[in-house]
TrEMBL record:
<dbReference type="InterPro" id="IPR009790">
    <property type="entry name" value="TMEM106"/>
</dbReference>
<dbReference type="InterPro" id="IPR048509">
    <property type="entry name" value="TMEM106_C"/>
</dbReference>
<comment type="similarity">
    <text>Belongs to the TMEM106 family.</text>
</comment>
<feature type="domain" description="Transmembrane protein 106 N-terminal">
    <location>
        <begin position="9"/>
        <end position="62"/>
    </location>
</feature>
<feature type="region of interest" description="Disordered">
    <location>
        <begin position="252"/>
        <end position="281"/>
    </location>
</feature>
<feature type="transmembrane region" description="Helical">
    <location>
        <begin position="63"/>
        <end position="88"/>
    </location>
</feature>
<dbReference type="Pfam" id="PF07092">
    <property type="entry name" value="TMEM106"/>
</dbReference>
<protein>
    <recommendedName>
        <fullName>Transmembrane protein 106A</fullName>
    </recommendedName>
</protein>
<dbReference type="GO" id="GO:0012505">
    <property type="term" value="C:endomembrane system"/>
</dbReference>
<dbReference type="InterPro" id="IPR048511">
    <property type="entry name" value="TMEM106_N"/>
</dbReference>
<feature type="domain" description="Transmembrane protein 106 C-terminal">
    <location>
        <begin position="89"/>
        <end position="230"/>
    </location>
</feature>
<keyword id="KW-0472">Membrane</keyword>
<dbReference type="Pfam" id="PF21002">
    <property type="entry name" value="TMEM106_N"/>
</dbReference>
<keyword id="KW-0812">Transmembrane</keyword>
<keyword id="KW-1133">Transmembrane helix</keyword>
C-alpha cells in the first residue's frame, strides 16, 4: 500500500499536478467551488473575486423596490402639497360698489324733532378658499362725521358661501337721528327738495366660520351718498334696534307705529313715525 501511494505521488509529480494538504481546522474556500479550504484564523484576510456575471451581484427585484419606494415618496410629497394648497385658509374679502342709496322711507317728527330713516345697504363677500364658509353674523353702523348715528347686528345668519365664489350680503335698519346729536343733518334732510344728498360712512363687520368652527371677521368702511329727502315714497318701515351714539347721546324710544310695522331680520324696536312732513325751524 505504501509503495502504491508513493507511486501515485510520483506519477502526479511527473504529470505536474499540484499538491495540497487538507487543513482540518479550515473553512471552505468560496472561490474554489468547495474544493479547497483556507485557515479559519485567516478568513478575514482573504478577498473573494466574483465574476461580474455572478447572480449574487444582481439581487432580484432591486429595481422594483427602488421604484416602489420612490413612487411612495413622490405620492406623499404631492399629497402634502395638495393638502396645504387646498386646505390652507385664505382671506375673506368685503367689497362695495358704493351705490347711491335710496332709503325705503324718511320721516320727520316735528314734535320730537327726530328724523327716522329706513335704509338698507349691500356689501359683496368674496370667498377665495377652496371650501365653503358660513356667514354667522353681520354688523352695520352709520357714521356722520365723527358721530355714530345708529348700528345694528344680526347674529342669527346661516348663509353658506361656496368655494371661490362671490355672495351679496345686505343689512337693513331704522336709524333715528335727533337734532341734539346732528342738527345740521336733520335740517338739511328736511329741506323740501327732491334730492337731499348727504355723505354717510357705513361700517360693515362680517363674521364667518369654517373648518371645525374656526371663526374669522372681515371688515370694510365705505363712504356713500344717501338721498335723505322726505319725498321718498314710504314703504313698510322695518323695526330695528338703534344704539346710542358714541359721541353724542340720543334716546331710543319703543312705541307703536300708527301706520305700518313689519319684522325683518333681527330687529326688535318699533319706531314712531308720522306720515306728515314737518320742516324744522
Amino acid at each position: 500500500m505504501q509503495s502504491s501511494s508513493l507511486e501515485n505521488d510520483s506519477v502526479n509529480h511527473a504529470h505536474g499536478m499540484p499538491q495540497y494538504e487538507e487543513l482540518v481546522t479550515g473553512v471552505n474556500c468560496p472561490t474554489c467551488n468547495g474544493t479547497g479550504k483556507v485557515p479559519r484564523d485567516s478568513e478575514r484576510e482573504y478577498v473573494a473575486l466574483i465574476p461580474l456575471s455572478d447572480k449574487r451581484l444582481k439581487p432580484r427585484r432591486t429595481v422594483l423596490w427602488i421604484g416602489v419606494t420612490v413612487s411612495i415618496c413622490l405620492l406623499l410629497l404631492i399629497g402634502t402639497f395638495c393638502s396645504l394648497f387646498f386646505l390652507l385658509p385664505r382671506s375673506i374679502v368685503l367689497t362695495s360698489t358704493k351705490p347711491l342709496l335710496q332709503p325705503y322711507a324718511v320721516y320727520f317728527s316735528h314734535r320730537d324733532r327726530v328724523m327716522t330713516m329706513d335704509i338698507q345697504n349691500y356689501v359683496n363677500l368674496t370667498n377665495d378658499n377652496y371650501f365653503s364658509i358660513t356667514v354667522t353674523k353681520i354688523e352695520m353702523s352709520i357714521v356722520y362725521g365723527d358721530t355714530s348715528l345708529c348700528e345694528t347686528a344680526n347674529d342669527t345668519l346661516t348663509t353658506s358661501v361656496g368655494p371661490r365664489s362671490l355672495h351679496l350680503l345686505s343689512s337693513r335698519l331704522v336709524c333715528r337721528v335727533d337734532t341734539g346729536s346732528t342738527e345740521s343733518l336733520v335740517r338739511f334732510c328736511s329741506l323740501p327738495t327732491d334730492e337731499n344728498l348727504v355723505y354717510l360712512r357705513f361700517n360693515f363687520a362680517v363674521t364667518s366660520s369654517y373648518m371645525l368652527d374656526h371663526k374669522e371677521e372681515a371688515t370694510i368702511s365705505a363712504v356713500q351718498i344717501v338721498n335723505c329727502s322726505n319725498t321718498v315714497v314710504p314703504t313698510s318701515l322695518v323695526p330695528a334696534t338703534t344704539i346710542q351714539p358714541t359721541t353724542t347721546a340720543f334716546t331710543t324710544t319703543t312705541t307703536t307705529d300708527s301706520t305700518t310695522s313689519s319684522a325683518i331680520g333681527s330687529s326688535s324696536v318699533t319706531s314712531t313715525v308720522s306720515s306728515t312732513t314737518y320742516p324744522f325751524d
